[in-house]
Amino acid sequence: MRLNSEGRTAEDTAAGPLPPAPFISIVVPVRNEERHLCAALDALLAQGVPPASFEICVVDGDSDDGTPALLEEYAQRSPCVRVLRNPRRGVAAGRNIGIGAARGELIVIVDGHSAVDGPLWLSKLAEVFARTGADCVGYPQPLAVDGSRTQQAIALARSSPVGRHPGSFNYRTGDGFVPAYGAAVAYRAAVFAEIGEFDESFETAEDMELNHRVDRAGLRCFFTSSMCARYQPRSTLAGLFRQQCRYGRGRMRLWRKHPATFSLAAFLPAAFLLVAAASWLALPHGLVAAVAVGYLLAASISAAIAARRCGTPHLLPLIFLALVTVHAGVACGSLWELAFGARTGTHPEERRGAAAVSSVRRS
Fold first, then answer.
1. Phi and psi of 85, rounded to 5°?
2. Given the DSSP bridges, would you call strands 136-138 and 221-223 parallel, antiparallel or unpaired?
3. Engineered SS bond to 249: which of 61, 176, 242, 333, CB 3.0-4.6 Å?
4. Quick one: pLDDT at residue 291?
5. What angle is formed at CA 132 by the lines to CA 126 and CA 136, rounded to 5 degrees?
6. Distance from first CA to last CA of the chain, Å, rounded?
């Protein structure tokens, strides 16, 4: 599908001009994002649409670095930037605070360590909603490959099919309707009135939990590769391990709340760790060694493919280490949550029901 400079197809252009653009609210939850915040906000403020057609609701989770000073500077510089406080600090809480304050017909969630791609990003988003009539929209969200050697290796490892969640759309191409579960990041405001907001008992995977409810409600999600947002990868393997531990916990917490979301592929790292531990205790060490060699061989081949695809053979050892770190982190987090995690609650917005939420929004 070929798009013109406005992000439209030839058929769309022939059909006539676009309807009046809807007001768009961009919700940016942040905490201690001093290193990446300028790139994120500069990309959003560089959009080729009238400033009166969008707002940026930055929700700060009581940052203790230079983030508050930067936000004050941006708020003074542009009337589009609104700064909100998130005393609960969590990402889900920050998203909910931004959604509650948003004035837009369309609401898109953008993280403070990402940068949207190009000045037509908002125009394309509005066009996709108008053209498809979708309730929510998703787009690729790859990791940027322009940092240190370790960051480059982490980005390449995470781009590998064995280095990311099997349900993720972050590296997908093409356009079409898809399940919201692994894709949706932009929503019509009416979606939150119907299904509630983010469950704040989740530290991670809160987006997948919400999107599962989107799918369960029969709402439609359109995925487009005509736009994207690029994320900054972790700068160290230790940071990557901690991140993946949180992801593993989030996935198991999601499964506990919504058993239908269970995926064997997502549980494989934890299953491998369990099998390896059981093998060490109950099976001959030769078999344990065979299992370990099989895993290391598979990880080595995946790392080699990623390095060759991007022409970075010098990063092969680091890519291999990043893949092992991803799997170890997800496995440890998953098993920890299964063993010690409490059953998740339901966010108050869900318990009040759609009618109550709708009445709050109308008031």
1. -105, 140
2. parallel
3. 333
4. 72
5. 65
6. 42
The model's pTM: 0.85
Distances (CA, A) of 11 to 15, 21, 105, 200, 279: 6, 19, 26, 43, 60
| Domains of the chain (ranges, CATH numbers) | 10-233+346-362 (3.90.550.10), 238-340 (no CATH)
DSSP state letters, 121-187:
HHHHHHHHHHHH--SEEE---PBP--S-HHHHHHHHHHHSGGGS-TT--TT--S-EEE-GGGTEEEE
Task: Please give the helix or strand (H or E) that residue 66 lies within, else none.
Answer: none
Cα gap 99→93, rounded to integer Å:
10
Residue of 70, 84, 69 whose CA lies nearest to 37: 70
Q: Which residues of 147-181 are buried (b: 16+ CB within 10 A; e: fewer)?
A: beebbbbbbbbbbbebbbbebbbbbbeebeebbbb
**CA-wise closest residue to 23 among 126, 98, 115, 119:** 126
Pairing of strands 184-188, 106-109: antiparallel
Q: What is the pLDDT of residue 266?
A: 75
CA angle centred on 229, ends 111 and 117, rounded to 5°: 125
Average pLDDT, 10 consecutive residues per value, the chain (363 residues): 42 46 95 95 95 96 96 96 96 97 97 94 96 97 91 95 84 94 96 96 94 97 96 95 94 92 79 69 66 84 92 94 93 89 50 34 34
